[in-house]
Amino acid sequence: MKKGNVFILLTALAYSTQEIANKMLVKEGLDSFQITFFIFLIGAILLTPLAIKDIKGKNLKLGINDLGYFSLNAALCIPISMALLSFAGKYTLASTSAVIFSSNALFTVPFAYLILKEKINKKILTSLIIGMIGVIIIFNPVKIINGGGTSDLLGITLALGSAAAWSLFTVISKIRIHRYGGYIFNCIVFYVGALMVLLILLVTGRPIIKGIDGHAVLVLGYMGLFVKALGYICYLGAIRLTSAVTASLVFLIKPALATILAVMVLGDKLKVNVVIGIVFIIVSSYIAFKSKRAYEAVVLD
Questions:
Q1: For 278-287, how does the pLDDT look when each residue is reduced to its tens digit (9 = 90+)?
Q2: 21, 47, 235, 271: least CB-packed within 10 angstroms?
Q3: Which domain holds residue 128?
Q4: What is the pLDDT of residues 171-194, one digit of tens each?
Q5: Of 61, 8, 2, 43, which Cα lies nearest the Cα of 257?
Q6: How far is 299 from 4, CA to CA, in rounded Å?
Q7: 265 phi and psi, to 5 degrees?
Q8: For residue 243, is pLDDT > 80?
């Protein structure tokens, strides 16, 4: 197997366990902001040596304007998107929140069109429609109308909000990430975002250390090391050895892999509408992936 494909599979595996690990911590009673703070602080610390090396290599000098840009991205990514995803784990299955989050392309495309002026072709539009149908099926509007699934509906809504915030973060990050490079950008964003979450914990009187036992330390360490730090390093490695488009296969693999792992590890019992919705989202992602590959081929030619 090619090294680039190994990086893609490792990234998909790491990212697919995020919601599962989060669900474990939520079940233990940890606060969602508390979880978010520690995993991003750990991730930032682990990325620091790579970021420092790149700063020296680029002879990069950062100013107030850069800090403002990092702060905007950090707010969208961490105290909003990732905290919402963590809260979603309280109210719905880990597999459901993972799949809903993987549908973030539904928001990325219109945001990219409005902010980056990227074009939308027919295949991308088709993939968006199919993806939206999948999300609607997972929401199960018939059950909602009949007054059922209130808790599940809240979890799905939070996951969808997380996907929207992540998409906006992804689009805005593209504006300047080439100036900093991936390691510098993510390391600083992780630190700033973790600081924002710490302030939220202090202001709201939420626990910071309380409730963290030996098992929680292991899970938090896993999320910070493998999901945030090594997962991202593998993703950059996949991009470097293949291409950004090919590396996006990660988000095509994640819905199915996260679902399988959630069933195996947490014993999630999947409903028929969720399975059907997952299929629609995977098909949507596949169409978008093929469209991007075709665009990449044209550009390279």
A1: 888 888 878 8
A2: 271
A3: 3-300
A4: 898 888 888 888 999 999 999 999
A5: 8
A6: 21
A7: -85, -45
A8: no
